[in-house]
Amino acid sequence: MHIFCRQVYYYCEGRGSWRDMLLPVSLRCTARRWACALSLVASLGLVCPRSAWTQPATAEAPGGELAEAARLDEQGVQLREAGRYKEAQPLAEQALATREKALGPEHPEVAKSLNNLALLYTERGEYAEAEPLFRRALAIREKAFGPEHPEMAKSLNNLALLYSERGEYAEAEPLFRRALAIREKAFGPEHPEVAKNLNNLALLYSERGEYAEAEPLHKRALAIEEKAFGPEHQKMAVGLGNLALLYYRWGEYAEAEPLFKRTLAILEKAFGPEHPRVAVSLNNLANLYDRQGENAEAERLHKRTLAIWEKAFGPEHPRVAVSLSNLALLHQERGEYTEAEPLFKRALAIKEKTLGLEHPDTVNSFVYLANLYRERGEYTEAEPLYKRALALWEKAFGTQHPKMATGLYNLALLRLRQDRPDDARQALRQALDIQEHNLALNLPAAAQQRNHAYLASLKDTADLALWLHLHRLRDDPEAARLAFSTALGRKGRVLEEATLALARLRRRLPPERQQPLQRLAAARTQLATLVLQNSVTLPPEQYRTRVSELRTQVRQLEDNLADAGAGLRALTRPLTLQAVQQALPKDAALVEFVLYRPFEPKAAGPAQRFGPPRYAAYLLPAVGPPRGVDLGEAKQIDALIRYWRSWLLDPTSPGTGRADKLARQLHQKLLAPLQGNPGVKHLFLAPDGQLNTMPFAALVAQDGRSLLQRYALTYLVSGRELPRLEQAAPAPRSGPLVLGGPDFARAAAGPPLASRPAAERRATGESTGAAAARWGENLRSAALTGFTVRPLPGAEREARAVARLLGIPSTRLLTGALATENALKAARSPALLHLATHGFFLQERDTRGEAEAQEPLLRSGVALAGFNARSSGSEDGVLTALEAQGLDLEGTELAVLSACESGVGLVLGGEGVQGLRRALALAGTRSQVLTLWQVEDRTTAKLMERFYRGLVAGLGRSEALRQAQLAVAAQQGRAHPYWWGSFTASGDWRSVRLSKLGG
């Protein structure tokens, strides 16, 4: 648990100003999101003028009693800032007594002394003593000035901070909001004083794990301050540092780092390299580096921080304890327990002396020592410290706070060390329940990239649950349910939340309020066009700048849409194993594959706690408990998959040769351990990792039959999709759209784009087996510039056949020059979408320095009319997966991309493939048929015709595809999986009611 420093604004009387207070915040390095309590020490700066409405002290004169009270207050503040609390207290008490005697107990000047004494108690963790003083000051001001006076905001803010610091968030929030409303009314919504209240309210949300609520408040506060002071002013440092800390908690380390660095640069420029406030940024940046594995740089910064604080405050200041603890944590992570222990103990001694035994930050130091004792095998010393910490945190923060999850996770690790796996499972279940509560709170209101980071930061608990079942409690049904439920709760979660959020926006926002969706689609199109075609028309520096601007614009629009979706979201019931099982057909079973890291009980240190990734599989039948098995090291299985695919892509290899042996070997590894379920005719497969790239239909069992011959197969990102697919879909708004055989040389309408230089090499456009030139393979994204493709006559015949077979009068058929990107983007929720054209997936290469390196959804797409001229209506004829996300396909029952590599993309653990399949799901389609490699034109046309005959006959989508694949495999010369194994069906597996599609 690293200790960060956040900054809150409180009102310190005597100097008569708002000031920022630096508060250590402990965060679990591996689970990261919980805010710790406070070793409270004020920093210098951010002083505002004394409020004009403060009543002057009557009869105050130099040398008088009131002048003496003011001097005592000032001296007390200085001693408090230096951590000399015992010396500060009598001065604060004397100042209060002097003012009470001179002015009476209800004078506003008395409220100032009450406030300062209360702050002293607060910083020492003596909250019970502080609260009545804050309340008395509040009552005095309300009587003197009225409930809406700006002076009231000071006391409301400080009392709210007290409640927040001891975890009483429900009591703190209305006070923060009331203080904010008073200041907005007094100063207007854009005043810097308002920004300070916004910062404090944002920190409250951050402390209780509501990151999506905190972010817009932090951003609004920053915008106000930047407008008022400029981007480099020292007052910007508080908001920037706290926003960076929020992103760290969220797992967004790439977002946090530049903000931490910017904060450091501002403070160094304002105060010089040795100022205590500079040390705050050094400390926080060091913790980030440690989290990212840059231990040497982290240690250097922590030592520099410690030197600054020791010089500024002396060796026994709470901030010195922060640096000592963080340095000790670095040693502990490396297994250097001898070096860590004295640092932990020195930090604890400082906190006990300055803050007391009950202060939350002192409790954190007990936990640090408990972790050390656990790693050294001293369990008797560790256990009572964990229990004490959990009891105090529950009392202070409640049962659902992220801190509690971290504490329970630590307790589970202790139970494992004590060889008490059943007790470890119970503690881990509680931790996972808390994490699920906070995921449900935050995921629906954030953009996809942030949600990926958030889930990744919680991976330790999920991996431990899987390892505990698979390696320690194999026969425990409770352990199996916990592990499988955890996998279902995490896999595909980001895709589901994003899909639901977009669906809510499309359904609930009227057309006149959907401009944000349109702006996002336009920005994605501009980015795709620039990256894929136009990079050669701009100087390199201008090109990089423009791409960066567009990427930022897309990200901001995505964030704004996430906020809008959160505002519309309805609370959904938690996913249960029972709900997934009830959604399975009676003759089906779900096979959930999952990548996990095995726990290493005897690891030398925390950094070695988890080993190299392994695959596991869980089988859930329609009736009965789940069964899970460990499948082996991911590295070995991935190597087998790559080797097998190399043989699958060569249709000239013998059917009983190496490809067949590898198919049997992979079946034995991946599915044989789950056998023993008679009556199962349909498998729902939820792959993970590189399993997403393999055709399960081509696996061969011991009896020599392929999976295609034994089962209908439906692919899912996660079994969590099944209950959602049970829900009724919105009705389509137009008839089927069939688009095929585009004229790649020209399009029907639209101004041509600027001419581009001829390609250095051209693709053949052929897709006739292994001998065909793979025009998209091994190209960088920008290398698509100038490439051309050849016509696909089979694709046009296929499109016409599909339209004829559907027999729906409202079907719209677009071929040749009419099959434009404009036409596709203009479609509004067609009942069915069929594309027969060229597809591409651009393999990853060394793209360092290339603008497109961070855009995986730009590496897959399809070619439409005018592709060779890069003119397709007013578009460019290249529809990327990034753009496909913005298609209006809400209510589209089925999308078929009869194109090369339409199901390929960048594999993201736990979230499937980042490509067209994901894009179509986000666009709203309920099911998809895609391909895993390049397919041959004529064979594909025949397969698709058979597939649609099956749909028309009433077969389910997965079964119709299976029958079409079996028919192709039975043809002479087409038995090799290359010809039929590329096609996969995902999503809704049931039959398509054609009468419904026809309106």
List the defining traits of the structure above:
999 residues; alpha/beta; 6-stranded mixed beta sheet; 5-stranded mixed beta sheet; 37 helices; repeat; motor protein
Walk me through what this model shows.
The structure is a single chain. This protein has 999 residues and is of the alpha/beta class. Among the domains are: 577-719, no CATH class; 731-935, no CATH class. The protein is built from 37 helices and 19 strands. It has a six-stranded mixed β-sheet, with helices on both faces. Strand 5 (614-621) and strand 6 (627-633) form a beta hairpin. Helix 1 (65-81) runs antiparallel to helix 2 (85-103), helix 18 packs parallel to helix 21 (477-490) and helix 30 (793-806) runs parallel beside helix 34. The longest helix is centred in the middle third of the chain and has 29 residues, at 540-568. The chain starts with a strand and ends with a helix. The model is unreliable at 14-19, 26-63, 567-572, 750-783 and 845-853 (pLDDT under 50).
